[in-house]
Amino acid sequence: MTSRKRTSSSVTNPENPPPPPKKKTTTIASAEDFHLAPPKLGVILVISSLLCSLYLYLLCFRYNVESELKRPILINAGLSLVGFFVTLRLIPVAARYVLRRNMFGFDINKRGTPQGDVKVPESLGIVVGIVFLIVAIIFQFFNFTEDSLWLVEYNAALASICFMILLGFVDDVLDVPWRVKLLLPSFATLPLLMAYAGHTTIVIPKPLVSYVGLEILDLGRIYKLYMALLAVFCTNSINIHAGLNGLEIGQTVVIAAAILIHNVMQIGASVDTEFRQAHAFSIYLTQPLMATSLAMLAYNWYPSAVFVGDTYTVFAGMTMAVAGILGHFSETLLIFFLPQVLNFLLSLPQLAGIVKCPRHRLPKFDPATGLLTGTKDGTLVNVYLRIFGRKTEKSLCIHLLVFQALACAFCFLLRHFLAGWYK
Q1: What is the pLDDT of residues 137-168, one digit of tens each?
Q2: C-beta pairs of 137-140 under 8 Å, 24+ apart in sequence
Q3: Are 235 and 324 in contact (CB under 8 A)?
Q4: How far apart are CA 106 and CA 115, in angstroms?
Q5: Which residues pair with 3 in a beta bridge?
Q6: Under 8 Å between Cβ of 116 and 323
Q7: What pLDDT sits at residue 31?
Q8: In 213-308, alpha helices (H)
Q9: Distance of CA 126 to the CA centre of its chain
Q10: Dihedral angle of Cα 323, 2, 174, 20, to the nearest 10 degrees
């Protein structure tokens, strides 16, 4: 979370000019004097090794994925790797531009320390979004033909993601009220909903078949409403589970890794061509998301050199929602989002106006010890601190990301034990 600088205008009397303003010492004098801290590539190497090694093993060695599917997946991975380095290069350039427009913030969790007075460039998620779109568009040249059945939905997915990037950046610039933020993803999903030509049926769980009397239920337009609601939840859930350096991007890359592993497992275990194509489609969107996000994480990991802004959080949530919808694993996606679901339930009294909701629902920082203390606000960050005690910001972020990874691992175990019995 950041406290954004706001400029104000006032009318002055020329006969009684105001006293000269007091000089205020700031860490950055101008955008030209700004020097971004170097990316933390060592941290990214460790995180990417932990998250990507299993996925690559399953794709290249564990499952015999046919060449017609493996080739575009590997091409997409190569383009995503290029996107990683392009994002890494563009972030310092974009940081100078946003500083020129006074788009910066101060790290509230470091208030009272020298780091708390540093102007941190904000809304750098726009870089990730743009590079992601370029990679995804270029990939069409290598995989889709003009008469491809998936091309319409692929472009509709990119249109929805692009729409969400635009709305997220508008939010960063205009500071849109949170009640309006809840509605923004509804508009961004319109291209996807209009172009969606997939099935609108759900498989009834086997224990409920005798009560419902059906094995497959066609929801029709209600299914599209469900798709829209899922996109709204995923988009906003990443946005409200935030406030720590690296947490927004960290949770995204953990979930993205789980999505990739799930997709390749489903491809390897199925013989249905359309089913395998749907999961490959999800991979085509998730690999660029993960690569560009890791590049941003190199600058956003504690202590953050840049802030991603709402542009990134809504973009990441929409991308994963689209990947889950068109990959036909929305139930699994919701379990991957278990910490976000828990955070939403904890936040519900404040979001609904039952309990007073401050602008920044952050823990309390003690500059003397450098530790965070949980407040009474209903967020997973504060509840975790109240249960397990005070922690440093970096330690707390790592704990929450481990919890995110455990939630994803729980999803895989749940699917394993319920296979054949639930569906």
Answers
A1: 999 998 877 767 788 889 999 999 999 999 99
A2: 138/79, 139/72, 139/75, 139/76, 139/79, 139/284, 139/288
A3: no
A4: 9
A5: 106
A6: no
A7: 56
A8: 221-240, 247-269, 273-300
A9: 13
A10: -160
d(CA 167, CA 170): 5
Give me 423's structure tokens: 């569906």
Give strand ranges (E) for 127-172: none
Mean pLDDT computed over 106-126? 92
Q: Tell me the CA distances in angstroms from 192 to 202, 326, 375, one per residue in order.
A: 19, 9, 40
Q: Can you read off the two tokens belonging to residue 264?
A: 């390749």
**Residue with tokens 């679901």, as numbered in its chain:** 341
Quote the CA–CA distance of 269 and 276 in Å, as a whole number: 9
Check residue 370 and give left, alpha or beta (phi > 0: left; psi -120 to 50: alpha): left
Which residues on neighbouring strands pair with residue 201, listed in sequence order?
A: 218
Ranked by mean pLDDT, the top range of 183-187, 208-212, 247-251, 345-349 is 247-251
**391 secondary structure, DSSP code:** B
Could you give the CA distance from residue 262 to residue 412 in angstroms, rounded to a whole number? 8
Residue among 161, 377, 213 nearest 169 (CA): 161
Residue 122: CB atoms within 10 Å: 26
| Contact yes or no for 318/129 (Cβ under 8 A) | no
The DSSP code sequence of 183-198 is: THHHHHTHHHHHH--S
pLDDT surpasses 80 at 12: no
Q: CB-based contacts of 19: which residues, under 8 Å, 6+ apart?
A: none
Nearest C-alpha neighbor of 347 from the set 186, 187, 239, 232? 239
What gap in Å lies between CA 4 and CA 119, rounded to an integer? 10
Owner of token pair 């959080």: 313
Q: What confidence tier does 40 reach under pLDDT thresholds 50, 70, 90?
A: very high
95 and 118 Cβ atoms separated by less than 8 Å? no
| 191, two tokens | 């291209």
Q: Which pTM does this prediction carry?
A: 0.90
Beta carbons of 315 and 129 less than 8 angstroms apart:
yes
Here the tokens at position 102 are: 């006074």
Identity at 274, one-letter amino acid code:
E
3-state percent helix, strand, coil for the chain, nearest multiple of 5 = 65, 5, 30
